[in-house]
Amino acid sequence: MLMEKERIQKILSQLGYCSRRKAEALLADGRISVNGETITEAGFKCLETDDIKVDGKSIGGTSNVNPVYLMLNKPFDYVSTANDPEGRPTVVELIPESYGRVFPVGRLDHNSTGLLIMTNDGEFANLVTHPSSAPEKEYLVKGRYPLNGDEVDKLQKGLYITREGYTALPAKAKILQDRDDDCLLSITIREGKKREVRHMMETLGHPVISLTRIRIGSLLLGRLPEGKYQEIPADVIEDMKTQCLYDKAHNTFVKTNPYEE
To answer: In this structure, are 122 and 228 located in the same domain?
Structure first.
């Protein structure tokens, strides 16, 4: 599958280097170069495999690098970026330099834990995070207060998120524990808007105490200790790619470019 040229801001964001807004500021300051040429145009497009540099340091140019796929159990209070302006610890720091430059696929909030994929394969990252192809993600969510009895039904019908003003897609939900002071649910979503699960629980009247992602598609966190990583077998990666390209609504495999917006 051929890669498509994309705006430099989007590429830097996908690589976990910085936000798109920050990338625009870097462009304006003339701090980004592509294949040796300084770029200042906000609409400039290139390939992720081009030689992208920020302040003279290579960010792209991964076309000849062996692909790396790792699963990490993200610890509490680590941020899912390659760099943090506030100086907080990042998930990249947990991966040995011997793997080269890797970046997180998608995000987990700093106060969330659990399964995070780390890779240097931008095409795979696009496939797993793009709304048209992203796989299911399952979370173990501990919330305050006992359940009222209708939470699962509301989640499965598609909950209106009061704080953000949108209706979430129907989720899968299962009650695991219901006690006097708290509750524990398994919530599976596909949409993945920012802090969506937390906002769901707040809307239901159960602010989140802890949130752990335990599954992305067929990839399971299992017993991997917090803060540790392991390589993902090639057959699992291929299986995930197949799952992402499968259009369940039309019972067929996607034939068009899934990265186009």
So the answer is: yes
* Count of domains observed in the chain: 3
Average pLDDT across the chain, whole number? 85
Assess whether 143 and 208 both reside in one domain.
yes
Beta strands in the chain (DSSP E): 6-7, 32-34, 37-39, 45-46, 52-54, 57-58, 69-74, 103-105, 113-119, 137-144, 160-161, 166-167, 172-178, 182-189, 208-216, 219-220, 229-231, 246-247, 252-253
Mean pLDDT of 201-210: 97
* Per-residue pLDDT, 123: 77
Mean pLDDT score, 33-54: 85
Written as one letter, the residue type at 126 is N
User: What domain range is 52 assigned to?
Assistant: 6-58
The one catalytic residue among 51, 109, 178, 247: 109
**Which residue is it, tokens 């960010």?**
59
pLDDT at 247: 47
In a shared domain, residues 149 and 195: yes
Distance of CA 240 to the CA centre of its chain: 14
* pLDDT per position as a tens digit, 231-251: 999 999 998 888 777 544 444
| Contact present, 131 and 191 (Cβ < 8 Å) | yes
Known catalytic membership, residue 181: no
Give the residue, 15 or 97, on which the prediction is more confident: 97
Rounded to an integer, what distance in angstroms lies between the CA atom of residue 101 and that of residue 79?
17
